[in-house]
Design a protein that fits this description.
alpha/beta, single chain, MmcB-like, Trna Endonuclease, Chain: A, domain 1, MmcB family DNA repair protein, 6 strands, six-stranded mixed sheet
């Protein structure tokens, strides 16, 4: 894995330590370190009583490492911190290159791994000023992180809103398309039925929805009303013709007969036929 800068490696290490339960600070100027700025500071919140404050010096090149060692910069951190580590990418240094009192943590493709544990000691320069410096720096760093998270959250919410709108539009379009396909099927069956009885029907049914500019060719209410009205009138005419036939069939019989009781039924049939005809 290639790293563009020590700062990127610092942030990656800080992120790893946070996931391990440490409270972390980056690039902190701590009183007692002779004005040195520590790349990464870590302490476990639930281990204050054990007083295990850790410093990590991040190195991306051998030149930077040997320059630090030659000036004893890292050793000055032992005046405030209980443990001091060098943090490097894999393959940069050997375990034997690291000073005896310091530890080594290495980053490879699978993450960070402690290769050499540092010697624990009780720092002589650790005091209230050092702790307050960490607290103040931690507060400012946390404030920046909160603002960054809020901005990311706002951007994500806006992105989710746009995606939700897009998904909703697509669902509506598909539902509308499904509805229109059902209408199209019904329309085609209706026109086929009209065609069987000799009515003129369009050659093609064109459907669309509100997402399309194409017009829908559906039977109008006026056309359906005319067809139903004509069918109703036809049924009435058929009933009237049938009634006329019934009337004529019973017309040859007298209105009353003393010896035949069926006259009442014939009279009733004529009355009903006249009502239908009228």
């Amino acid at each position: 894995m290639e790293w563009e800068s020590e700062h990127d490696l610092q942030l990656d290490l800080a992120d790893y330590l946070r996931k391990c339960g440490f409270m972390t600070f980056t690039e902190v100027a701590v009183p007692g370190c002779e004005n040195g700025r520590v790349d990464v500071v870590a302490i476990k919140p639930h281990m204050y009583a054990s007083k295990d404050l850790r410093a990590y010096e991040v190195k991306l090149t051998k030149q930077s490492f040997y320059a630090d060692v030659s000036k004893n910069k890292w050793y000055k951190y032992r005046g405030v911190f209980h443990r001091v580590y060098f943090a490097i990418p894999e393959g940069l240094l050997r375990k034997s290159d690291i000073p005896d009192e310091a530890g080594l943590i290495v980053r490879n493709d699978n993450g960070w791994h402690v290769v050499k544990a540092p010697k624990f000691h009780n720092p002589e320069e650790l005091n209230i000023n050092s702790v307050l410096a960490l607290l103040y720096h931690g507060y400012e760093e946390n404030k920046v992180m909160r603002r960054l998270k809020d901005r990311i959250s706002a951007e994500e919410n806006l992105s989710l809103s746009k995606k939700a709108h897009s998904i909703g539009h697509e669902i509506a379009r598909r539902l509308d398309s499904t509805k229109e396909s059902q209408i199209e099927k019904w329309c085609m069956e209706l026109w086929d039925l009209f065609g069987k009885f000799g009515f003129e029907v369009p050659e093609k049914i064109v459907t669309c929805d509100r997402f399309s500019s194409e017009r829908v060719h559906l039977p109008s209410i006026y056309e359906i009303e005319n067809l139903l009205s004509g069918t109703k009138n036809l049924m009435h005419d058929l009933a009237a013709i049938k009634a006329i036939g019934k009337y004529l069939e019973n017309l040859q019989y007298p209105e009353e007969s003393e010896n035949d009781t069926s006259w009442y039924s014939r009279k009733n049939n004529r009355t009903k036929a006249l009502e239908l005809i009228g």
